[in-house]
Write a structure and sequence with these properties.
By secondary structure, the protein is of the alpha+beta class. The protein folds into four domains: 150 residues, no CATH class; 63 residues, ATP-grasp fold, A domain (Dna Ligase, domain 1, 2-Layer Sandwich); 128 residues, 2-Layer Sandwich (D-amino Acid Aminotransferase, Chain A, domain 1); 95 residues, Aldehyde Oxidoreductase, domain 3, CATH 3.90.1170. The protein has 14 helices and 25 strands.
Length: 475
């Protein structure tokens, strides 16, 4: 395990680049691609390497630029770039994980001399380089489409599709059921619309145009709660009636054009109010409901594909007590179930194109690979659950959590070992001595089992282990 580098005399620090850790070493015989995003999605890169090796005709390595400040890193060729965390590191010698938004991180990387010099060094040895992003962002300005190619959906299209008001209108135009609601031009109008629901004894859901995992959105039951949660008076808001429901399914899919959409998985989200915490697979929904949700997802995908969107996307739904699904949102990016879905496909469909290979074909060729089949998401001999322990206050880590296996390891072991019913791990734990500001991840819990009853208790056990390793940061 490599530890945080505390050397402040690096030339990149002198240039103003906030590089906290750097283990990157280029080998002349290899071609490289660059991953940009959170470390919790790093393991997706392994699925790209075999495919890229066929393209380059030589060994391929991944170089990762991530914002995550951890005590230890188990990945090679990785650098940590984080402007806010670097201020703590340079000024107080502290390891503080400050999680930037995807847009802010893309902006920091684009302005980084370190990243620019890295790309120049790679391009001296190969004709072009791919940048693999978990979420395509318009703030990423390094890609020119020729020598530096974005391996992901078009960032401008993705940004437009991630707008909650645009999504609501799209679903209405496609006649996909949505909760009753309205797009409002300002906060005053949002208050007026919400009052209609309050007078009927109902709650409302309010969201800013851009929100993710529950941020910038809230369930509210009166005007005072709205004013407490939202302060921008002159921006649009989406206001819908809160529907009492039993399930929060999420669908992961790939769109290749205006006709072809591959639905990879349907899982059930773990929600705490409107906050996403993790997912469970397979879904507990009945097959007919799942098929309806998948068809709605294909309708959305075909609409996006007709506009030029290529690559992974997700659709979130809710299902009421009568089994009726309602569309909630599009995630025009990879989403939280991507790695687990890819690993499930690897076990259950050996020899099948990987999920990342399917996306690569959609992005670069505008088509899906031949001979692909969709998984059954209602029955499986490989069950899994994830839970993200996210800090709601500033915290410090007071003990390490030993780790002996990786997430790919436990998927493979449970699937192949007939005697192993279930196991669980914590991925990307912050580590002893690291502090974290509100909103970041303390650790990601993953459990895999042959049955839901064997898998689920271990997920809760790992959640408690992570929570016992942290305490409030008093400062």
């Amino acid at each position: 395990m490599a530890q945080i580098i505390r050397n402040r005399t690096s030339p990149h620090y002198c240039q103003g680049d906030p590089i906290i850790y750097n283990s990157i070493k280029l080998e002349a015989e290899k071609a490289y691609f660059i991953y940009l995003g959170d470390i919790k999605n790093y393991r997706l890169n392994a699925f790209l390497i075999p495919y890229l090796e066929r393209i380059y005709g030589r060994p391929v390595g991944c170089i990762a630029l991530v914002p995550d400040v951890l005590a230890y890193y188990g990945y090679p060729n990785l650098a940590v770039l984080n402007k806010e965390s670097y201020r703590y590191h340079a000024g107080k010698g502290m390891l503080v994980n400050c999680r930037p938004t995807a847009g802010h991180f893309a902006q920091q990387v684009s302005a980084s001399l370190f990243a620019q010099e890295l790309l120049e060094g790679i391009l001296r040895e190969q004709d072009f380089v791919y940048i693999h992003m978990f979420e395509s962002r318009p703030e990423m300005t390094l890609a020119d489409g020729e020598k530096i190619r974005l391996l992901g959906p078009d960032s401008t299209l993705a940004h437009g599709f991630n707008n909650k008001i645009n999504q609501f209108k799209m679903a209405c135009d496609l006649s996909i059921p949505v909760p009753e609601g309205f797009s409002c031009s300002c906060l005053e109008e949002a208050l007026e619309v919400a009052e209609r629901f309050f007078r009927s004894g109902e709650e409302a859901f309010i969201s800013e145009p851009y929100s993710a995992a529950g941020s910038n959105s809230a369930f509210v039951c009166n005007g005072e709660e709205i004013l407490k949660s939202f302060s921008l008076a002159e921006q649009p808001y989406l206001v819908t009636r809160r529907i009492r429901h039993t399930h929060d399914p999420t669908v992961l899919a790939v769109v290749a054009n205006g006709d072809d959409v591959y639905v990879a998985s349907v899982a059930d989200q773990i929600m705490e109010q409107n906050r996403f915490r993790g997912s469970i697979f397979p879904t507990a929904l009945e097959k007919d409901v799942v098929e309806q949700i998948k068809e709605y997802t294909r309708m959305v995908g075909r609409y996006m594909g007709a506009k030029g969107y290529r690559g992974m996307f997700g659709c979130d739904f809710l299902v009421d007590e009568d089994g009726k699904p309602y569309f909630i949102e599009v995630n025009a990016r990879k989403q939280g179930t991507t790695l687990e879905t890819a690993l499930t496909m690897l076990c259950r469909h050996p020899g099948h194109p990987s999920l990342l290979e399917i996306e690569f074909s959609a992005i670069t060729q505008g088509r899906l690979p031949d001979g692909i089949t969709e998984m059954d998401s209602t029955e499986s001999d490989l069950c899994w659950g994830t839970y993200n322990v996210k800090s709601e206050q500033d915290i410090e880590v007071v003990r390490d959590l030993p780790k002996f296996q990786s997430e790919p390891d436990i998927f493979r072991l449970v699937y192949l070992d007939k005697s192993l019913e279930a196991t669980a791990i914590v991925e990307d734990h912050l580590g002893l001595g690291v502090y974290q500001r509100t909103g970041g991840f303390a650790g990601r819990c993953v459990s895999v089992g042959k049955t839901m009853s064997s898998m689920f208790p271990l997920l809760g056990k790992k959640e408690l282990e992570v929570k016992s390793s942290i305490r409030p940061w008093i400062h």
